[in-house]
Fold this sequence. Notes:
about 140 residues
Amino acid sequence: MILEQMAKNMLNYRVVVKNTYEQNQKRLPELLTEINDIQHILGLNSHDAVALVKLAKELRKVLQERWTMKDELDLAKPLCELFDRHSKFFEDLERVSSDVDRITERHKNRKFTPRIRVDLGPKLIKQENNIAKLKEVMEMRNAR
């Protein structure tokens, strides 16, 4: 089971890193615009103390989100560059993953037919077990 999951996990990690990188790149300009909006609202309008505290909290929240996004972007960038440099490896890994899935499926569906000891075949054993169970039931009924 572990061997089947290894290639899939590696491919999933690549997808997660790339998605994080792309989403953060798209979100950063939005956050900058939001910061500018809050700064303009603070600078251009007069506010009471409650409104100032509310705006300051909102600005802090947006700034912290932006810092987190930038940190994730800095961490994901070298990984994305590595993935791009080794794109052939990941293509091969996808192929290997599908091969492993196909082999695993083949292993699940295989059946064994005895060549010499046909008396031990699964159908015969099952029939013998059913006969033994039937005899037990009949003996229990007769014992009553």
